[in-house]
Amino acid sequence: MPPRTFALDLLSRRSSYVCKSCLDSLRTASARPWLARSSSTAARGSQPSPGNSKRTGDAPNHAEFQRILTEEFERGPEPTSSSGDLDVNYFNQEAPGKLRRLRDKEEFGEVSGGLDSEIETAINDLEKKMITTAKMLQRMEKQGERDKADELRKQFKKTLRMQYKGKTGPEAEDYGLLRISGFSGPRQRPVANLNAFLARDSVVKGGIPRSRDVAECWKYYSAARKTLAQAWHNVPQEVWNFLWMILSWEGDGVENPNRMQHIYILAKDMQAAGVPLRDSQQLLAIEAMFIEGWEEEAIEAWKKAVVTLGSKPETFTDYWELGVRMCCLHGDTDRAQRAAETLLRSSQPPNARILLPIIRALAAKRETVDQAWESYTHMRTLLGETITIEDYDEVTAVFLASDCVEYALQAFVDMMFSRAIDVRGRTRLPLSVGNHFFIGKWLKRLIGMGDLEGAYKVVVFVQDKGITPSPIQLNGLIGAWLRSGSAENLEKAETLAWGMIRARLDHVQSRQRQDPVRFYKSGSMPATAKTEGEPEFVCRTRATAETFSLLAENYCSRRLHDRLRELFEVLNQAEIGPTSFLMNQLIRSHSQNGEADEAVRLYETMTKEQNIRPDGHTFLTLFNSLSVNRLVQRDPDLTKKDIASARRFFRDMVAAEWKFDSPEIFAQLPRTILFSMLKAKDYRGMIIAARAMKELFAFHPPEALLIEMASGAGSLQVRSKRNMERLVGGRRTIEALMRKHRMELIKAGHPGVQMTEEEKLNELHDVLEKLILLKAGAHNSSQEEVEPLLEEAAREMGVYDIVVAKDADQIARRRKLGKQTAGPV
After folding, report:
1. Which residues contact 454 (CB under 8 A, 6 or more apart)?
2. Helices (DSSP H) in 199-350: which residue ranges?
């Protein structure tokens, strides 16, 4: 194909295209026609390279063309004379020895100029607009309006520059108007899609790419690669630079997970196209090659670039740091150390943290661990006071991963005591280090960093040194393992937890000076898995109630009801009193297992016989165990039992001494109570519960809760058309009840315009009671008919003194508000 051309230098791009009016003004009698010259070139099938698009004698150079264009624009177009039509046949060589006759001049112009019809039309339209504008300005000058013409000329030039200023990168670099030309036919579609992407105004908006820009850039470029490979020379340098800028971007929170893969492919394409890479691009391409699996080839490319990249001040540091990282990952620690020494001995400020990859590579092998420690001490000396806690954390993590716990402990001691204590090689640790407080700080830091395996190695190491870790730290490790959710970590957590339970049982046995407990003989202790090839770790830290709670919660969430029952049997033998948390987990487990009666029996046994004090979570669990909350298909007989059970639970809840401990339970418990009674159709119990919770919980039903109760309990669970209609109907019902309440206030003498906060809260309670009566079909009943029924329900629910008698002492004594629940729901 002939060289790629484009419109006017106003588009900030060099081009060999010359507009027709300029050619006519430049053409002389002795010059050969440009059309005939192009025709002969096309007939020969020659395809000049992109770098030789401007031939001597064919067209004016760039500066001369700019001058001619400026003069043409300043003075306006001159009439041109046509030399007559030429009868010329046009041919194009599409394959060696194969010529195809072109239809007309338009197709010849498209083939010879590398421009598709869309670009040709745009150029012609631009020429016509410029000629029209020049004529208009020329007429204005002839009419004596030179100043106005000059002003319009400047404004027109400014508009053109703004319209074709192109893309601007993050470092204010100008990419011009980005477009790939020279492709036609069916294969041109992916290139057209790429061009459309490059032409978007939203791409790299503000100079910074977005995650969407990166994803779509690779989408369109990867689709066009096969077509572009047929004529790489048609891709302009600016397009390559723009693609590299987007696909290599990793800053400002932009997600680019396949960055190195994209860079590797793009660099190969640029090499195939003969496009030279900048120094920074070469370094990034070498790194991408290494990460994509071509490790030896990348290292060889890095070696060959030592003269160019390794000696330039701009790339010196990046070059040698890249070599250190690659050689360490490849296992060539000797070359990595030499590269690091070259970097550290240079005149540029050394970055001693380049030794971290060397420390990691040396510590991975048992025979070079001592060298890793020497590299760490060297780095620590070079950093001096600038060493950070993160540096120490990384060093300790490296030695822990390599099972060199003693070196890791020494690094942590260096951080805590400024290298004043040496613990290496000691059988017993110094008192300042060998205590569970100091070890607890380390374990807490490791668990917080997520290095759970390293924390377990520390537990084993310090116990071998005669230090028993605190149960608080081990419970934290068990909880972190359980929260991770992986099967391997769950097994490790159970193994450590049951090891602590064994230590607790051994302690009980030793304290009582009795024979081994029957629990061991019965074999009911769950077997824990042992890792093959590793010695069994016998934990000496004794389990606490928190240890049992962690296992109970995990077994309950995993619905391992039998394991939970075994855990409670062990709890009695360990002589640890059950807590309300453990009781709640067992109640919930029975309820999930379909044993609601057993759950209630367990609650009554543990609260009355074992004197366990229930809390808000206990009653939330009990209300959730009702059949109306468990079963999809309602059973009328079970629903009747639920009414009595719900009233009994409410009576116990009011009588028990407990306080709300979190905003979550403060929001969940009142809602669960109301909906449980609504599902069971205990409307009298609902009204009494709402009145009692107003006094004891400071509960005020929010409007959203009222709408949900009016529309149905499940109306918010699924966003379907039916549920949206139910919600709309519920809102209308609540609005009607609010209007009714305000009309009653107006009849009682209230102005009905402005309401105090207390009056608004009372309005919500009144609307709630009106809604309950509406659902019960008793909205037309008088107060005298309803109140006796409510008093009977209040006595049954144990709140007569609170709801009916309004005993201030009883209300103050039964309040459940805690420090964290001092506001309305």
Report:
1. 396, 397, 400, 401, 408, 446
2. 211-228, 237-247, 259-272, 279-291, 295-304, 316-330, 333-344
Tell me how far CA of residue 122 lies from CA of 59, 115, 135, 188, 762, in angstroms: 22, 11, 20, 18, 72
d(CA 107, CA 117): 9
**Tokens 């005939």 label which residue?**
36
Contact 372, 363 (CB under 8 A): yes
Higher pLDDT pick, 819 / 176: 176
What ranges do the domains of the chain cover?
9-165, 168-265, 277-350, 370-462, 665-825
155: which DSSP letter?
H
3-class state of residue 141 by DSSP: helix
| Coil/strand/helix, residue 330 | helix
User: Rounded distance, CA 174 to CA 207, Å?
Assistant: 10
Q: What is the CA radius of gyration of the chain?
A: 42
The SS3 assignment for 381 reads helix
> Mapping DSSP to helix (H, G, I), strand (E, B) and coil, where does residue 95 land?
strand
Q: Does the domain spanning 277-350 belong to CATH 1.10.15?
A: no
Q: Which own/partner pairs from 643-647 qualify as long-range (CB within 8 Å, at least 24 positions apart)?
A: 643/677, 643/680, 643/681, 643/682, 643/685, 645/600, 646/673, 646/676, 646/677, 646/680, 646/682, 646/685, 647/682, 647/685, 647/793, 647/796, 647/797
SS3 at position 822: coil
- Do the Cβ atoms of 642 and 626 come closer than 8 Å? yes
What distance in Å separates the CA atoms of residue 661 and residue 584, rounded to the nearest whole number?
15
How confident is the model over 205-259, as pLDDT tens digits? 777 888 888 999 999 999 999 999 988 998 999 899 999 999 998 876 678 889 9
Give yes or no for a contact between 412 and 443, defined as CB atoms under 8 angstroms apart.
no
